[in-house]
Amino acid sequence: MLSTVKPAAEKVIKPLALLLKKVDPNVISLFGLAFPVLFFWCVMQEQYVLALVVFVFNGLDMLDGMVARMTGKVTAFGGFLDSTIDRFADFTVIAVFGFAGLVGWNIVLPLLMLTYLISYIRSRTELAAKGQLVANVGFLERTERLIGIFGGLLLYAVFPNATLGGRNIMAWTCIILIALSAFTVGQRFIFAYQKLRNIS
Hints:
mainly alpha
């Protein structure tokens, strides 16, 4: 969904990409590991405002790709590295709520599984299609999920004692994300079924 606003987001961070054009894109990708790790630490320390500030910098993960395109250094390994780091970041920013005791593992683990399924189904569909398809379909892509987590943590930071049915705001945020993620998995599975039947 929100991937359609990517061109506008790239315009905003283009000046920073220009400043970094002499830096190897893979180095920029590896530097991006710092933000989910720091976010994890902040949440564990109950420093939620600082965690939210750090979380915003996760949006800079487009920088490596922009610099690579600007400098003609786009490589298959660069795409692989970026995707791998994204998976690490996804685990870190979701699992921390279980480790910190904010959300039960019975909620965190299904969200993790569905998060990885969304990514896996896309990559496996595109691989099976032999370059004939781009399978970025579905309601909840990575950008929407990150925005949802940010919004949920912001509300929890403002209303830490608010509960509904014995669950806090962050737990309900994760439950909503589970429902939307499951819906997206279904959308991508149906897309794969419809498109791959005629590809041998």
